[in-house]
Amino acid sequence: MVVRPTSLGNHGIQDRGFGFSEGWRHRPPVRVSMPGMQFDLTDLRLFVRSADTLNLTRAAQQQHLSLAAASARIKALEAQAGLPLFLREARGLRLTPPGEAFAHHARELLRRTEQLRADLQEYGGGLRGHLRVFANTTAVSDFMPELLPAYLAANPRINIDLQEKPNAEIARGVLDGRADLGIVAGQIDTLGLQAIHFSTDRLVLVTSRQHRFARRKSIGFAETLDEDAVGMHHGSTIQTFLAGVTDKLGKPQKLRIQLSSFDAMCRMIGAGVGIGVVPVSAARRNQQALRLALIELSDPWSVRERFVLVRDAARLPPYATALVDALLAHFKP
Fold first, then answer.
1. pLDDT digit string, tens, across residues 250-288
2. Fold category of 9-124 in CATH
3. CA 154 to CA 14: how far, in whole Å?
């Protein structure tokens, strides 16, 4: 596989010392360009050190610059910005509001540069691919940990960055290139992306076997809202979805505790802390050991189709196609 670097357009970043060859190391420092501004990474590092220490002399020493050179660089940044970034005071520097904003973005640019450096060094060490996957809560905490070990063992030179995101952000992330694959469930706007169906998910109500709902075969979610509840952590895909449902019903869940995994939820439910809405796969996995009761939810939204989102399936690299195939095989009847 030939890895071609992504074009950075008008936001090219150049720097010394990525460490791949002496030829690379001695190229001129690469500059960051944006409308009306141009600066190199030395400028950014100097600015961030000045913002951190609020002392230009100390920041200059840390960057191995003379005080005069450091002062000139900061003044040049302010001239390009057309705004003062620091206030000079008797005791040192103080960031202005535009300076605070500049410092925030400078830190992010430097962080991304370090990540780029690390990623490229991994390729230099034999890495052949880096797969970025945005996925919902169920995927991240339930079935992806089951199938990824075999995939990674079969693809030892592929790394995976798996991140939990809300459904809407998953689609946006794939569309704008922050993710190579997206895993979603339910009714969402796919933003014109290709959607590959791989399974059907069902959410069920889980209770202890001593709970008054335990003998019910089916129940509407609205009927459960007077009970103490166990939920997933704030910001998780499923909890965000349920919050939207309760908003429409005009009555929130009575959450006693929010946790980071479905297995932890099931342990709390089995102990009688409350009831919870859980994917049926996680509920069945814990049903016997924790003596749980599973009750079907009568709400149409409880049945959710699962899809992998891609920009163009025909142009996926082989290792990405292999992960999609692994998903399809994992859920094959």
1. 999 999 999 999 999 999 999 999 999 999 999 999 999
2. Arc Repressor Mutant, subunit A (1.10.10)
3. 35
